[in-house]
Amino acid sequence: MLNVKEVSQRYPGSKQYALQDITLTVGSGEFVFLVGQSGAGKSTLLRLLFREYLPSSGLITYRGRNLARFNGRELLNYRRKIGMVFQDFRLLKQKTVFENVAFALEVVGHSPQAVRKAVPEALAQVGLLDRRHAFPAELSGGEQQRVGIARAMVRKPQLILADEPTGNVDPDTALQLMELFAAINKTGTTIVIATHASDMVDRLRQRVVQLERGRVVRDDKRGGYVGEL
Amino acid sequence: MLNVKEVSQRYPGSKQYALQDITLTVGSGEFVFLVGQSGAGKSTLLRLLFREYLPSSGLITYRGRNLARFNGRELLNYRRKIGMVFQDFRLLKQKTVFENVAFALEVVGHSPQAVRKAVPEALAQVGLLDRRHAFPAELSGGEQQRVGIARAMVRKPQLILADEPTGNVDPDTALQLMELFAAINKTGTTIVIATHASDMVDRLRQRVVQLERGRVVRDDKRGGYVGEL
Amino acid sequence: MNFNSLRYSLRQGIVSLRRNTILALVTTTMVAISLGVLGGFMLLSANVRHVVRTIESNVEIAVFAAMDADVTALYSQLSTLQSVREVILVPRDEGLRELGLALGDAELFQVFTPQNNPLPDVFRVRVRAAAEVSSAAEAIRGMPGVDTVDYGEEIVAQLLAITRWASSLFVATSALLGFGAIFLVIAIIRLSVMARQEEIGVMKYLGASNGFIRLPFFLEGTVMGLLGALLASLVLWLLYDALSASVQNMALPLLLTPVTGIALLGPIFGGILILGTAVGAFGSLLAIRRYLHDH
Amino acid sequence: MNFNSLRYSLRQGIVSLRRNTILALVTTTMVAISLGVLGGFMLLSANVRHVVRTIESNVEIAVFAAMDADVTALYSQLSTLQSVREVILVPRDEGLRELGLALGDAELFQVFTPQNNPLPDVFRVRVRAAAEVSSAAEAIRGMPGVDTVDYGEEIVAQLLAITRWASSLFVATSALLGFGAIFLVIAIIRLSVMARQEEIGVMKYLGASNGFIRLPFFLEGTVMGLLGALLASLVLWLLYDALSASVQNMALPLLLTPVTGIALLGPIFGGILILGTAVGAFGSLLAIRRYLHDH
Ligand SMILES: Nc1ncnc2c1ncn2[C@@H]1O[C@H](COP(=O)(O)OP(=O)(O)OP(=O)(O)O)[C@@H](O)[C@H]1O
Ligand SMILES: Nc1ncnc2c1ncn2[C@@H]1O[C@H](COP(=O)(O)OP(=O)(O)OP(=O)(O)O)[C@@H](O)[C@H]1O
Ligand SMILES: [Mg+2]
Ligand SMILES: [Mg+2]
């Protein structure tokens, strides 16, 4: 589904490479953990897959099509197929929890009826149905994070890219969320999760890609989290 | 040092109590982990200790003085004694890493020489000395979080309140940071950390206060993280 | 952009106006102030033009008939001139009386009788516009029975100069004020868009089309522009009405009658409304443009 | 607030102006535009007042001497009147010549000789201000040797009415524009503060005193206000200079000479500079006030 070939990324104004010569294939329906130290380049890779920007060099293709070649319309359609969970949540402050999740549907032109049906389902899955009228500023950190997850899932996308989706929740909730991702993955959705949650990675036993200083240093089919701990 | 007595907090417009009837004492030089599910009230408690706002009811005292009675000047002096790590970092987007940390000193009128000496030390402690000229938007999530920690520590405060300070870093880095907090604690600084990092809590074996739906359900002298996992 | 999106945008524009009330109020007031100043200036300019035109059409050509002229023939000949608006005959006896009055002592002039009256018959001719005075005077000079033709050549030349000068000043200042107003409104809208930059970014990440992102801002800008223009028109109209009433009450000389006709004021107030709405609409489009084309 | 903090604030104000260049430019331009409009209006008003005053002081009282009057005595008596600015004697012979010229045909008047000249000696008296005309006329009427006193009573009354009306209009409009400008600038600064609300919050959490938070905004606001005022003054001055030169080139009638003296323009340009700086300084203080007193 996703093909990353010899991709390097150096941010403008920076001397060092955030990613260096990455080559990686993510098959349709796969579940991939992206692990690595803080600053290893996980978010950068996810952002490149999301086509937030283009890599400094190398090629990324989605179902054989070069992301760099997308025109405005194609980029739009591509992003509409993806559910992205941002490391910094990126909720709209001016909208309530419900509106934030609904927004993902409204943006692509779903009908109000469809919205009224799908949004509560998604909120229930992350355990936030009773907070639906709150604004982001009125939520705890973990609750905000879960709104971001609900927003990514509500469109039932073909691909979910999640950046540290459980950094602000307790281990129990994190496990529930990971199991939710696993369940969605079972329905055929491809999932890539950048995470530091070593115990989750160890528990789920899925493919693990480890980055170190911008390079892939490990790619295990059913790996665990390998660290000093 | 800090005395919390029968404190309840209900946010305006909310039906439920975020904190209910909390009574707690934090002694000078103590190291306290605040644990509990997402939405249990950890951040709320830290915000009350920081006097971000006053509790709906109950009494909080610092060295015997009622936080609610502070006038402008006293509040200022109180906050200057505290190093706060925010769950959402709260870095100044317009300032570089160096400037963000330096700001904590400049605000209280330190001289440029003192700033030039203390800031690089603090940045080195969190491993960010080489990123000092970057702006927050140019940092990874974990790097931003560490800037927040450096900013809290640079003033060598009497009290550090840290809200989920390792949610965005890998376990190795998290351990380093926790050991840093422990080292600072050894010098006499009181430390209260709200966290979901169960393995860190289990490793450090410090006092653990567990919240559940706004109530204290456990307070162990040398406890571990108790959860389903 | 389907029907759901359209409906969504409409609702969103309203919600956003309600949630960003302060910002919306500030923008609306700014639009109102800048359009108000522009409109006030245009009203002033309309009035000055009106006064100048009144003066212009009051410029008189004095036509002194020869002593032996056929006064009636000359009268009808003068009246048929294209550019002439009015011809008044001042017979020589009447002229003598007027002269006496003008000099402040009518009695002194009783030494003159119709027989030794030194004055000729005089026609006072008024033309339609100052620009036509000199050609009309030229034409009259050639008529039979005309002795002398006299008009304030200098004054007419100066009036023409003033008119030309004032109208270019007015056009220039109006343009300046207009651009100022447009720039101001766009700047304000840009600030309000800047404050919502993050929101726009999130919309793009969620796959919103440019049109979808643009529409609520466009509606908001249009509404703010229109409201501002309405406010400006209302205040301006009330002020102008009060002012012109006070001018008329003072019974100032004819020259200072204010313009009140709908034909003259209509375009100004209409222009304010159109300008305000257009600036709001296009200003908002312009303001978000660069947030849309990043990637 | 110690020396380190002060130095920090100064540096910070500059850094902030540099990093928020667009916002700073917008604010500065807004200040410039609003002050420019205000200043332009005040220049206009100064000129109108100047014209009115010129007209006023040109109002003439025609004093017709009695046929047997002692003209020299009357002349010196008129000249000693407090309110009188100028006295011109038009001897009866001269008067006759002028009349002939005025009527367009001097030859006709050769029927008059110094012996049968029906005109009296006339004094043209000019007073200092329109308001003094009627009292002066009254005083003159009582002087020995005066036959008739005549002046444009109606015109003087109207001029006075216009003057009074125009000055209240000018004061009102200036006040309105001034308030508009102040409101505008404060609104803009408030927007710029709103955009940095988060920053202010963080400063408070770090234990910054209100003075410390305020100072950079204050400096920024002052600099923006001053720069805007300078810009407005510069543009206004260039425009005004060009305009008044063009007016003078056109050799318009004396009435339209523009005001150019430093004594008259100084207060206007000085006022703009002071107003701009004050509005920038206090506007910024006002704008952050409510972000400081939350908790
Ligand atoms: N916009 C940017 N400009 C310059 N450098 C950047 C930018 N964004 C990231 N970097 C740098 O690139 C490197 C990789 O960043 P990235 O965000 O991909 O790390 P990460 O693996 O997600 O880390 P974390 O686990 O802390 O979130 C880091 O050193 C970071 O400082
Ligand atoms: N400003 C607010 N207004 C209304 N409700 C709030 C507000 N802030 C927090 N809450 C609610 O209060 C409860 C406790 O929030 P708090 O942020 O203290 O939780 P927490 O223990 O820090 O959770 P997390 O681990 O997810 O950060 C939550 O249910 C939250 O939704
Ligand atoms: Mg990251
Ligand atoms: Mg929290």
Notable characteristics:
heterotetramer; A: 229 residues; alpha/beta; Rossmann fold; six-stranded mixed beta sheet; 34% helix; 24% strand; globular; C: 295 residues; Alpha-Beta Plaits; 2 domains; four-stranded antiparallel beta sheet; 9 helices; binds magnesium ion
Can you give me a brief rundown of this structure?
The complex is a heterotetramer, with two copies of chain A (229 residues) and two copies of chain C (295 residues). Chain A has 229 residues and is an alpha/beta fold.
Task: Kindly describe this structure.
The complex is a heterotetramer, with two copies of chain A (229 residues) and two copies of chain C (295 residues). Chain A has seven helices and ten strands. With 229 residues, chain A is of the alpha/beta class. Chain A has a domain of 112 residues: 3-Layer(aba) Sandwich (Rossmann fold). In chain A, the strands form two sheets. Chain A has a six-stranded mixed beta sheet, with helices on both faces. The longest helix of chain A has 16 residues. Chain C is 69% helix and 8% strand. Chain C has nine helices and four strands. Chain C is rod-shaped. The two termini of chain C are 19 Å apart. The model of chain C has no long low-confidence stretch (mean pLDDT 79). Chains in contact: A-B, A-C, B-D, C-D. The structure holds adenosine-5'-triphosphate (ATP) (2 copies) and magnesium ion (2 copies). One adenosine-5'-triphosphate sits at the interface of chains B and A.
Q: Helical segment tally of chain A?
A: 7
How many distinct beta strands of chain C?
4
Strand element count of chain A? 10
| Oligomer description | heterotetramer
Main beta sheet of chain C: 4 strands, antiparallel
Largest interface: C-D, 50 and 50 residues
Largest sheet of chain A: 6 strands, mixed
User: What is the 3D shape of chain C?
Assistant: rod-shaped
Under CATH, the homologous superfamily of the domain at 1-81 and 194-224 in chain A reads P-loop containing nucleotide triphosphate hydrolases
**Strand ordering within the main sheet of chain A:** 6-7-8-3-9-10
Poorly predicted regions of chain C are none
- In CATH terms, what is the fold-level topology of the domain at 1-81 and 194-224 in chain A? Rossmann fold
Number of domains of chain C: 2
**What is the average per-residue confidence, as pLDDT of chain A, rounded to a whole number?**
94
Distance between the termini of chain C: 19 Å
Coarse morphology of chain A:
globular
Strand content range of chain A: 15-25%
Q: Which percent range fits the helix content of chain C?
A: 55-70%
